[in-house]
Each structure stands twice: as structure tokens, then as C-alpha cells.
Amino acid sequence: MRGEPEMVIHTGIREKEADLDERKLKVQTKDREAYRFPSIDLLDRVPEEDDRIDEQHLADSKRKLLEKLRIYKIEVKRISTTVGPRVTLFELELEPDVKVSRITSLENDLAMALAARGIRIIAPIPGKNAVGVEIPNSKPKTVWLRSVLQVEKFKNSTMMLPIVLGKTIANEVCIADLATMPHLLIAGATGAGKSVCINVIISSLLYACSPDKVKFVMIDPKRVELFQYQHLKNHFLMRFPGIEEQIITDPQKAVYALRCVVKEMELRYETLEKVGVRNIGDHNRRLPEEAMPYLVVVIDELADLMITAGRDVEEPIIRIAQLARAVGIHLIVATQRPSVDVITGIIKANFPARIAFQVASRVDSRTILDGSGAEQLLGNGDMLYQPSNQPKSLRIQCPYVSSSEVEQITAFIGSQHSLKTIYMLPAADAPKSSSGSSSSSMNQERDGRDAMFEEAARLVVMHQQASVSLLQRRLRLGFSRAGRVMDQLHANGIVGMADGSKARDVLIKNEDSLELLLRNLD
What we know:
single chain; 522 residues; alpha/beta; Threonyl-tRNA Synthetase, Chain A, domain 2; Rossmann fold; Arc Repressor Mutant, subunit A; 3 domains; 10-stranded mixed β-sheet; 17 helices; 17 strands; flat
């Protein structure tokens, strides 16, 4: 029997601290009003914590892990560990003849052997000849927002829209650029940490950007998550024509607000075309006096909007997600219902950067991340972040920021002089008719019949056969609209009852009889 492999404990990354208040806190805005960045002292001080590693817990976990693997005849050559804020990563270097698939199938067995709440297996770790097993710590540590903002990496960041996501297992502060993401989808079960994550992201932008650089559109169907940002109305919040409130809570107003953003996107593209540049960065460098602010659209609870407004809200979100990157408009969308009717395929395709908090099942995890893992998270800010430029997700502990801290930051900004320049979004165009929209005035006549009703009637009488596919092909209608037209033909006695997949009988035998019927209908 060979001896046990030695365990190497890696010390976590020690981030270089920096005082954010040493930077230039007072800046001039475009309309010559001075603006002061919020001080880091508005955030609560980080309590002193014991940084010592619980080596006894690590040794016990290692012993149980190796015992269980030996039962299944899986030999380990080397073990190294990295202790993070909430979980410890065990990196196992296996013997050459061991298949990776044998380890992945043992996830539940290892969780039972370690008596752990949930373990996650990474097989293999990207760029390493090892398999990773993430095990919860005996004493989890809280990551505070102040501790991740007070680092040199954030203070000296050259990113356009830096957002702090938290600390990795190696204790490295993870900072991403929203401008290159270009949109972020956040999903997870109730109480897992989505709203705190949104508060952290917005607070990061408030500490990093002046009102000239970034503006927000906030949509909050839950009504209670974003209300504390009302204080930003004279500095950071965009206004909408015809709507008094600047934080939208009504679903119908949310559809209108998103259409206003789409109109702003189209006007910005026209501006870029006139100037002869490809994106907002080139435009702002060439014409600093006419610099356009970045626009961050925050939607906290997409599921509620999708249930109440459906396709009406999905269409502008998809258009913004597909086109708005070049003109500096970025989406942050959160939902607690990660199902395919909310996070549709076309929404997912346009949100390459995603965050998954704890979810109930593997199916939900696959809906968000296209892979399992989120069902094994621990809650309270434990998350998987899928960057747009990496194939595998990163496990990160999201920082905690309290409602009172957010209130202090926003109240400090709100107490400053209001900016004279009011940023108003352009009025939205009237919604265009689509092939599947029955409420559109172009699709419906006053008497309730479709605008294509008479043409469809003449078509089926001429062919003496009636089917939905015929109307789709010949009149170029969508499936649902063609089905409604067919129902109207039946209600007016032109075609017979549906009979499974067979074509319907045409009850009017010639065009003269049809014209007489149509005149009587009028």
C-alpha cells in the first residue's frame, strides 16, 4: 500500500490595498457644476476577522475524500488546496489510467462521505492536469463591499464601466468591465443574493463613474428593490417623455421605457454614421465636447415583465441586446425564475456573460449556464460567473452591501447640486405591426375581423380548399395570425369545422356567392 499523497496548502492572493479617497474626488461636469464622488467612509468598516486556516478541517476533508476514492479504486498522486471565503478547492492530480468521467459520477457519494451541504466537481480544471473538488468551509467568511473596493486594482482600473463581482476561491478580487460584457444576465432562487448583487454592481459604478460618463434606466416591477436610487434622479437617472417617475414599476410603462431606449439606440447609430466612427469610444475621443454617456438599463425581475407583457417586452430587450453594444447601452437583467419561457433561447444567445446564484435543480442551472453546478451552491451570495470570453464558469463570493449603506451613498449624491443638463430619452415610435400581433390596428378592422379576412376568403373559395398552411404560404401570414383568420372564416360560414390535420371543407362554392356574403357582412 502506497503512502498518502502529501497535501500542499496554497496561500490565497493578497490584494494590494489602496485608499479610494486619495483619488480626485471633486470633478467638473459638462454644465460646470462640481460633482463629488462618494467617500469610501459611507460604507461600514470591515470587522476584523481571523485569517488563520482551519488545518484540522482540511486534514479531515482530505482523509475522507481519499478514503472514498480508494473504495472506487481511484488513486491520487498529489493534492493541493486553496481556501476561499466560503469554499475550499481541492485539486487532485490523478494517476494516468483514471478516467475523468469516473470522478464526475461520484459527486453525491463524495458529498455524503464528507457530510457536506453540497460539493461541486470541476473535471478537469481549465489549464491544469487536475480535477477540482469544491467543499464548503466549516467557518464561512463574509466578503464586504468596502474590502473589495479598497484595492489598487479597482482604484487604478482603466476599464470603462468597472463592476466588482466579489472574491474568487483564491481570494482574488474579481473586477469585470460591463462595457465589454456587453450585457449581464443574473438568475437564481429567491433569497440567493440577486438584489444584493445588483446593489453591488450599481454601487461599483457610482464609485467609479461621474454623471457625465454613465446614466441609468431602472425598471423594478417588484417596487421595493430599487426605490432607494430615487435620490439619483438629478444626477444619474434618465427621464422619459410623458412619464413622471424615473424608476419604472408599471409593466406597461416598462415596455414604453424600453422602446424609448431602442429609439435612443437608433439615434446614436445615426450620430455615429454622421461622424464616421464605429463605436461610442471613438466618438467620445473625437468629439469630447459632445461625448455621449454610457447607458445602463437595470431590470430587476424579468419574469414579472414576461408574464404581464410577454412579447411586447421581449422584443425591445432583444433589439437592445443585439445592437446596443457599439453605442454604449448595456443591459443588466435579473430573474428568480430561470425557466425557458422567461430566459428564452434568443435572450440567452445575446447575454454571453451570466451569473447564476443557487437554484433548485440541475435543469435550472442548465437554463442559465448551459451546464450543471448552480444547484450545488450555498446561497447568501455564493455564485457562478460565466465570463463572455471563457468556456468555464468561475466560483465567486459576491460582496455584501446593506440597504442602509446604499441609502447613505445615494443620499450623499442626491444632496449635491442638481445638474442643469437634463438627459431625456426620445419618445418611442408607435409599435410596428407584426405577423403575430392581433391587437395592431393594421391587422384588425373595426368590426373585429382581420384586415386579410376578405383576401383569405377569396383565396380559399378560388382553391376550394382551406388550411392554415395555405394562408401562411400565399398571404405570408404568421402561424397564429393565419389560425385566427381561419377561425373568422369558420365563424362567418365560409369554411367548415376543423377535422384533425385534414384541410377544411369550403362551404361557398363560387366567387359570386362569396361577394354577396361579404357585402351582407359589411
